[in-house]
Each structure stands twice: as structure tokens, then as C-alpha cells.
Amino acid sequence: MxxxxxxxxxxxxxxxxLLALEAMFPGDRLSARQFRHHLASPRARWQVAEEDGRVLGxxxxxxxxxxxxxxxxxxxxxxxxxxxGLGRRLLQAAERDAAAAGCTGLTLEVRQDNxxxxxxxxxxxxDPVARLPDYYEDxxxxxxxxxxxxxxx
Length: 153
Ligand SMILES: CC(C)(COP(=O)(O)OP(=O)(O)OC[C@H]1O[C@@H](n2cnc3c(N)ncnc32)[C@H](O)[C@@H]1OP(=O)(O)O)[C@@H](O)C(=O)NCCC(=O)NCCS
Hints:
Blueprint: E1 5-8, H1 15-22, H2 32-40, E2 44-51, E3 54-62, E4 69-77, H3 86-100, E5 105-111, H4 115-123, E6 127-132, E7 142-148
Parallel strand pairs: 4-5
Antiparallel strand pairs: 1-2, 2-3, 3-4, 5-7, 6-7
């Protein structure tokens, strides 16, 4: 039988696995302190993808005070597990969480040179609403995307 993949909320004990995932790609990483903060925050909505006890990816939405628009703060899939539809599943789960929390839309920022992520978001119905020049640590430009979350998101 193929190993079962499941999505679940994050727990504090996921921290080492989340840090290991974060270490797999360069630049603008979340620190251990930031992870701890978001793991404990009532305004954070996590989805962790786990297979055979291994964390293969996660999505993190932050709910904002006074705004009906949530922010997709981070979405990462282990390089060894990419191309299997996991990023799309995590994104859909993040959208469902945000809608269930009362968000009417999601916003996110991504590097313009991140082809995989830009393709994922555009295919999922996100609209580029702003160019973000010099947005990242290394001077790379970004895109801001938004998507309305209607019924059935
Ligand atoms: C972006 C990322 C989350 C995609 O995860 P994934 O599990 O490989 O993506 P999926 O298999 O669900 O692919 C979904 C869609 O994304 C797009 N996509 C994914 N990888 C792609 C690639 N290498 N090149 C072009 N498009 C790609 C495609 O449109 C794909 O749909 P399709 O297969 O029907 O064409 C993953 O590459 C990743 O973790 N990257 C590093 C972290 C990151 O950049 N996060 C996003 C910015 S916060």
C-alpha cells in the first residue's frame, strides 16, 4: 500500500522538521524564533503535510486584525516531494482555513524569479496586483497576488 499522506495542523514538536525544510532553500528564511511565535499564535493557521511520520511541507496563513484579507505567509514543499500536487493541496487547504476563519480573500508575495511558485499561484486563480521592486534581501523583485475566497474555496 502506498504511504498515506495527510494534512494536519502544526504542533510545537514540528519545529525541528519545519526548520529543516526551511534550510533547504536559500534566502529570506523564517527564523526559529519566528516559527515559535507563529506556532503559538492564535492568528496563525497551519497546514502540515505528513507522510509516514515525515513532514514533507507546510502552509502558513496569518489572519490580520481589522482585515478580512488573510496573508499566505509561507508555503514550502520538500524538494524530494515536489511535483506531486502537494503544493496545490496545501494551498487549497490554506484557502479553506482562511475562508473558515472569515477571510474574504488571501494575499501573498513571491519572488518574480520563482517560476514554480508563480505558476502555482496563477494556476490557482491568484491575480498579480502589484510589482514589488527590490522587495527581497538580495534586491530581487516580487509580485503581490490576491485571490477572493468565495463559497467553495
Ligand atoms: C512552489 C512549491 C510550493 C510547489 O510545490 P509542488 O508540490 O512541487 O507543486 P505541485 O506539484 O502542487 O504543482 C502545482 C502547480 O504548480 C506549478 N509548478 C510546480 N512546480 C513547477 C515548476 N518546477 N515549474 C513550473 N511550474 C511548476 C504547476 O502549475 C503545477 O501544476 P501542474 O502540475 O498542473 O502544471 C515548491 O516548489 C516549493 O516549496 N518551492 C520552494 C518554496 C517556495 O518557493 N514557496 C513559495 C513562495 S512562498
